[in-house]
Write a structure and sequence with these properties.
There is one protein chain. By secondary structure, this protein is α/β, with parallel strands linked by helices. 39% of the residues lie in helices and 19% in strands.
Length: 270
């Protein structure tokens, strides 16, 4: 009865279903891995938020980027802003409002400067970059903020003549300043003296995203593919059984016997 499963058509269908199911399972496992990574990253960020602020030199160096586990750790730094080297980071919207982030090097007493995202500035209308940026406070300031790793390398961190970028990177600014910079940058959460014109940094979104539910969906797709194959295989099996039953009822011997008796019936009727 099940010999039809060994035909070329059904073997090809089973192979196609197997490939689809394995692919869906792999995609589901990948989504679950991403969910686990996001969950672990959020736990690390939450722990960093709870930790007290430490001096910048304990977390950041000039020779290597901050450790992945140190991102979003709070640090403090004291120094003087170099307002001549500040830049605007474009396309930074908040609550649907357009704006820019104002980034300025902070020269510390050690001679090493720290790139500080001082805060967000709303831009009116469709203006991408304001004609002028708020000047940083004069004198010595104390900055507290979250450690961030440089944006990926590329043209987005290159500073053109207009002094605007699309991503923050100390490597891009290092080409324009004569002093050393810490690798990475800091998003300021508070500052003394404060800057009333700029909005402080906001914490990141700690949701894990849709990865878990996407993983469930891919496993569901794999189950549906196998379910459809079994459904059509069962339908074919039932059809084979019906055909076999019908063929037994119409055996040639029965038909021959029926023909032998038919003339007598006809004769008797006459």
């Amino acid at each position: 009865m099940l010999r039809f499963l060994l035909t070329r058509r059904w073997l090809a269908l089973f192979l196609a279903v197997a490939v689809v199911s394995v692919g869906c399972i792999e995609l589901g496992l990948w989504q679950f891995r991403r969910y686990g990574e996001a969950k672990a990253a959020n736990e690390q960020i939450t722990a960093n938020f709870a930790a007290p602020a430490v001096p910048v030199q304990r977390v950041m160096t000039t020779s290597s980027p901050p450790a992945t586990g140190s991102e979003w750790r709070a640090i403090t730094a004291r120094g003087r802003y170099d307002g001549h080297q500040q830049v605007a980071v474009l396309y930074r919207t908040r609550s649907g409002a357009p704006g820019v982030d104002v980034v300025t090097p902070l020269r510390t007493s050690s001679g090493v400067a720290l790139i500080v995202d001082r805060g967000w500035l709303e831009t009116p209308g469709s203006v991408q970059s304001p004609k002028s940026l708020p000047a940083p406070p004069r004198g010595v300031v104390t900055v507290t903020g979250w450690v961030r790793i440089n944006a990926d390398s590329g043209s987005s961190q290159t500073i053109p003549s207009g002094r605007s970028v699309r991503a923050i990177s100390s490597a891009g600014i290092q080409r324009r300043v004569p002093y050393r910079l810490y690798d990475g940058f800091v998003e300021a959460t508070s500052q003394r003296p404060p800057e009333p014109r700029l909005a402080a940094a906001v914490p990141p979104d700690l949701s894990t995203g849709p990865h878990f539910f996407y993983g469930l969906q891919w496993f569901l797709f794999a189950a549906l593919a196998l379910g459809f194959w079994f459904y059509f295989a069962r339908a074919e099996y039932l059809q084979v059984r019906r055909d076999a039953s019908a063929s037994r009822l119409q055996r040639p011997s029965d038909i021959a016997v029926g023909r032998q008796h038919r003339p007598r019936d006809v004769a008797s009727r006459r």
